[in-house]
Amino acid sequence: MKLADCYTPLTMTTAKAIQDAGYDGICRYLWPAGKGLTPIEVTIIDSVGLKIVSNFEGDPTYPGYFTTARGRQDANTALGEALRVGQPLQTPIYFSVDYNAQPADFPRILRYFEGIYSEISSHYPVRAYAKADLLTYLYEHLYWMGPGWEPAAWDNGVVDSNIALFQDQNGLSIRGLIQVDEDLVKGANIGWWSPAKGVRNTLQQGDSGAAVRTLQTQLNEVLGTKIAVDGIYGPDTAAAVKSFQIIAHLTPSGAVGQSTQAALDSRIKGKEERSEAADEKAHQDKIQHALAYLQQAESIIKSL
Fold this sequence. Notes:
- The protein has helices spanning about 10-20, 40-45, 70-85, 105-120, 130-140, 210-225, 235-245, 260-304; strands at about 1-5, 25-30, 50-55, 95, 125-130, 150, 165-175, 180-185.
- By secondary structure, it is α/β, with parallel strands linked by helices.
- An eight-stranded mixed sheet has the order 5-4-3-2-1-8-7-6.
- The longest helix has about 45 residues, at about 260-304.
């Protein structure tokens, strides 16, 4: 079996192309905006018969990135996004170490993963994307660390015997539609998932954390409200959700599932596109005004 991984959000066309190319699943990234996995994308991936592996990757490309505090921060961001896209509880999230880490760096990377575990372990198991000798070090020092995901880079052909996934090729083009990296399945416990059926993956009153803060920010932007962005899903947040659901012609339950989140994401994207169009029009208007002034100046000069 093999999986594809990519930063590019998938459409129905690209997801189907990946499935047609013989891949069994897709590795995607938990990130709040831009390149991150979305609820709509989860539905698309599931509809073409692919499964999902979740990875979180901030900027793990140098030793100074790795601290306990950073681990806690990244864990909370990943947790919020996993809940937002409907990742079933107790399915793992991989966290990346994306550089040729040297043994002197390993203790600080260990502390980073301890920070992650302290924040997220009651919801999702923690795994690592890292080179072979670092994976071995983490296995030896962290009893809870599950099988890792190893890239071919940096290891000179060494493949860790305990890994779940091995990234063996980079930059492959799928029918000229999308570029992916290829990952071979090396163990039975990959940690991939599909949207849970009959399991709560909604946000509702009483919840708290990073996902609620993201929701509150989106509600304020879409509705023009001034809900406190405190990460606490209280009565004010529930009331704002109901208001949005009425506007979006959804059942006003006050809880945020995939349909409500998809509608919010769509409204946010529409506002961003309208803002970009308005900025472009303002820019063009400035150019036209400047040209008009130049023409007036030329006329005055010629008349002298």
